[in-house]
Amino acid sequence: MGATHLPSTEFDGTGINDQLEAVAEAQLGDPAVPMVQLLGPDGKLGSDPVFSDYAERIDPEKLRGFYADMAKIRRFDVEATALQRQGQLALWVPLTGQEAAQIGSGRASQPQDYIFPTYREHGVALTRNVDLAELLRQFRGVSNGGWNPKDTNFHLYTLVLAAQTPHAVGYAMGIQRDQKLAAAAATGAATADGTVGDPEPKAAVVVYFGDGASSEGDVHESMVFASSYQAPVVFFCQNNHWAISVPSSVQTRIPLANRAKGYGFPGIRVDGNDVIAVHAVTEWALEQAREGNGPVLIEAFTYRVGAHTTADDPTKYRASAEEGRWRAKDPLERLEKYLRAEGFADDAFFDQVKADGDELAAYVRKTTYDLETPDIRTAFANTYVEAHPLVAEELAWFEEYSAGFADTADSHHASTDGAAN
Q: Which residues pair with 246 in a beta bridge?
């Protein structure tokens, strides 16, 4: 075949449909501009041509709720860390510093939305009414999950980096198809008897991941699918600057939010320590997704103040001065300044928040102490629906192996008793 007879690529000689991207840029501006920030570290509220309208919907009661949530989840984080240090948990993943990113985005979601977390979204779990004590079951090693996702539309934690992003897009595509079928059924019903029932509220998916996970192929593949099918999903990247010991400057040479442009959907960088801005941006993104305008990528620019996990020592790879600079941007302190300056909260409110946090910590501590270790045989029983000869053989070997420790212990006690006599 000669060169003149080669097939053309699909875009040769044709106009690419950049309408959605153009609309997003008209609303949001050039994605290369600085991040969206409404509440600064000084506690003063600024403005934004798009997101101030969303911020104005947040009344003082809701602002107090944001603060109470952030304070509560920080207190929970401190307690969980202490429990791990006492040997009550095998591992813990701290979130201190990321409270605004999680509470702001979680509170922007609606009950019908479905959330896919990683393993650090304790604050989002709080906003979805997950019993926080249930989070610790997995970190104690007594459960594969800890809660039923169907009760809260909050999925189980995913420990494999970025594995939840393809699941989230698939779930979003399922929502998309269910809503089309529901719309078609409603149209048919209206044609038959002239009436239409109240439609189900539109839903979207939010999937969380970190700056480190953004380098995984799963994230890329998920964004390709989401863009191709205009799936109603919000990709929420918490850029906490450290993928364990690797800084975000090594992970990417441009703001992570700019990557969305390559897939053909909007990307927004927001101050992840500004709970008001995070809530506004997430609310906007979820509206876009629910209304069929496709995915959105949010990069919450925040910081992991503590360790990656309780098995990590961040002093080995980052300077304390850096941590100090970010502590000056503390999400709780800036909101407290604003609440006090506007007369939205007083000492009595903050005292009550502290008391509520201590009460939560006491509940979590007692619940963790009371957890019972499940019989290991249940793990064998749950491998297959029906009995399996190979699993039965492995269980028999395990029981024989375990019995050997009991024999050794009995022999040790017997010899000790004999020596004492």
A: 243
Residue (of 98, 76, 102, 99) closest to 89 by Cα position: 76
pLDDT over 90, % of the chain: 77
Q: What is the pLDDT of residue 21?
A: 53
Q: 207-225 burial by CB neighbour count: b if 16+ within 10 A, else e?
A: bbbbbbbbbbebbbebbeb
Residue 9's CB: how many other CB atoms inside 10 A?
A: 8
CA distance 411 to 417: 10
| pLDDT in the model for residue 28 | 55
Residues of the chain under the 70 pLDDT cut: 1-33, 188-198, 406-421
R_g (Cα) of the chain, nearest Å: 26
Q: Which amino acid is at 99?
A: E
Instruction: Give per-residue pLDDT as tens, 13-58.
Output: 444 455 555 555 555 555 555 799 999 999 999 999 999 999 999 9
pTM to 2 decimals? 0.87
Nearest to 275 by CA among 26, 87, 45: 45
| Separation CA 223–CA 288 (nearest Å) | 16
The residue written with tokens 């961040």 in the block is 314
Angle at 267 between CA 264 and CA 269, to 5 degrees: 165
Spatial CA neighbour of 276 closest among 63, 80, 31:
63
In whole angstroms, how far apart are CA 343 and each of 48, 63, 340? Answer: 23, 12, 5
pLDDT of residue 414: 57
**pLDDT at residue 420, rounded to an integer:** 57
Query: Can you tell me the distance from the alpha carbon of 377 to that of 398, in angstroms, rounded to the nearest whole number?
Result: 9
